[in-house]
Amino acid sequence: SEDELHRRIIAAKSALGERVRILGHFYQRDEIVQHADFVGDSFMLAQAAKAHPEAEAFVFCGVHFMAETADILSGPDQAVILPNLAAGCSMADMATIDQVEDCWRELVEVLGDEPDASGRQPVIPVTYMNSSAAIKAFCGRNGGIVCTSSNARTVLEWAFERGQRVVFFPDQHLGRNTAKAMGIEEDRMPLWRSHLPRGGNSEADLRESRVILWNGFCSVHKRFTVGQIERARAQFPGVRVIVHPECPAAVVEAADGSGSTEYIRKEIEAAKPGDVIAVGTEINLVNRLQEQHPELTVFCLDPVVCPCSTMYRIHPAYLAWTLESLVAGDAPNRIVVDGSVAEDSRVALERMLAARP
Ligand code: 13P
Ligand code: SF4
């Protein structure tokens, strides 16, 4: 039963003490979040993995790419464990390393690889954190960088200091929203479709481009619509609408603010009693924020409950099992990134950590 799992998790955790740290993403269900030593957005979780050299192991309650990142940034003797190996991210799966390398070859064919008079490369690869370690490593090897939704603009500015344009993997929406906020025109952001030569773009399109967008998206965030925002505004005059930048551009434009899950949490923290806030992001976070703030009205823009199904795969039974295995001296479900993939992806991640203002 739920109660029994709860008791087992507490018992195993206290037997392990500070040797094991539980990290949890904001989208995790409450039954997991309540046991986490640290809860955050994906940027904060990457920092946390770097900041606890005393821990022997991290139990990462989140999705696969986040656990990979934790392994890359943590020490060589620290184990990173993903309680359920089936917790992936469908957006991250929308770009494979082979597709990315094919895209790069075609871009170099069209744009060349010689820097311009001011030393800027023809194109800098930027990958959203929501991608495989292999793609982060590709970026590290090719003068590129990683970003999260909390620093995408800073990272794009970093990239434009070094390149004439950017190719952005895999979330078209975060790429487009960030570039638009920087004043880049939409007709200079061609979409790359990996099944077509040159993504289906003309050579002129690619030469004139500023940001080449990969054709990926988050199936949770693409459900949000401008119609939902209009209905919320009609029903609650004065409502504040905040959304995650993985939402389509029209939704971000119709909202009052957009940002990472930590930005959303801070916005709720800063609200005044009686405020009404409609949120465009995953339901576990929205419901938790409402529970923590009974003095506010906080609701999800999408009336059909929309959990991230893969985040949800971290069930308390898996957490109990992993912690008990650690007590018994086993470390199951380890996520290990090694060799040149670890080395090169660390370069791209460290560039991101250093680029933060
Ligand atoms: P954050 O970086 O905002 O936590 O987002 C991660 C994510 O997967 C959102 O869907
Ligand atoms: Fe991936 Fe979307 Fe889930 Fe975030 S919410 S982990 S982007 S599927």
UniProtKB/TrEMBL annotation:
Molecular function via GO: 4 iron, 4 sulfur cluster binding; metal ion binding; quinolinate synthetase A activity
Binding positions for [4Fe-4S] cluster per the UniProt entry: 89, 218, 308
A GO CC annotation given for this chain: cytosol
Chief localisation class: cytoplasm
A biological-process GO annotation: 'de novo' NAD+ biosynthetic process from L-aspartate
Cofactor(s) needed: [4Fe-4S] cluster
Compartments (UniProt record): Cytoplasm
UniProt remark on cofactor binding: Binds 1 [4Fe-4S] cluster per subunit.
Function: Catalyzes the condensation of iminoaspartate with dihydroxyacetone phosphate to form quinolinate.
Annotated protein name in UniProt: Quinolinate synthase
Protein's organism: Leucobacter weissii
Lineage: Bacteria, Bacillati, Actinomycetota, Actinomycetes, Micrococcales
Part of the whole protein covered: 85 to 441 of 441
